Amino acid sequence: MPRLFVALDLPDGLADEFAALRDDAPDAPSLSFTDPTDAHVTVKFLGDTPEDELDDLLDALERAVADADVGSFPVEVGGLGAFPSEEYIRVVWTGVREGADELTRLHEAVERETTALGFDPEEHEFTPHLTVARMSDARGKDAVQRFLRGNDPDVGWFEATELRLKASELSSEGPTYRTVAWFEV
């Protein structure tokens, strides 16, 4: 039973710029960084999905992309933030400065189609972002807070042309992702 999510991948051409965020971050022992080649904007997390539901899911995602009707669009990535807040940091992220409206439309369409299939609705407001690092505990929190408040990096621009249905396999070394299907936007 694959663990699935719908995402917009960061193109390989911006991996170095994304990696620079890690290079500029403080040396906090509780931070674990995202592999730049795996960086993505999660549009919808689906979770464990039975194989026999995959065809219906693929049809639903085709409909969602068609309903959103965004076409290809420019995406600018930059800035820094934290979830759930700067006071209690679990995730350090860089945001989507340009293209957030289109990603939100895609998210809303995917949300409608997938909840109609029985997938759980999102519990939080959609914030287009790419995870830079996860923070496992409060060690180094002050340094991370200073980093968040004192930096406004530009990661770069790219043209969004497709959404991907991805599978995530968890291991002790971290997640491994593979693309299951592509959907031209």
From TrEMBL:
Leading EC class: hydrolase
Reaction(s) this enzyme catalyzes, per UniProt: a 3'-end 2',3'-cyclophospho-ribonucleotide-RNA + H2O = a 3'-end 2'-phospho-ribonucleotide-RNA + H(+)
Catalytic residues as annotated in Swiss-Prot or TrEMBL: 40, 129
GO molecular function terms listed in the Swiss-Prot or TrEMBL record: 2',3'-cyclic-nucleotide 3'-phosphodiesterase activity; RNA 2',3'-cyclic 3'-phosphodiesterase activity
Segments passing through the bilayer: none
EC number from the UniProt entry: 3.1.4.58
Motif stretch (HXTX 2): 129-132
Similarity section: Belongs to the 2H phosphoesterase superfamily. ThpR family.
Protein name per the record: RNA 2',3'-cyclic phosphodiesterase
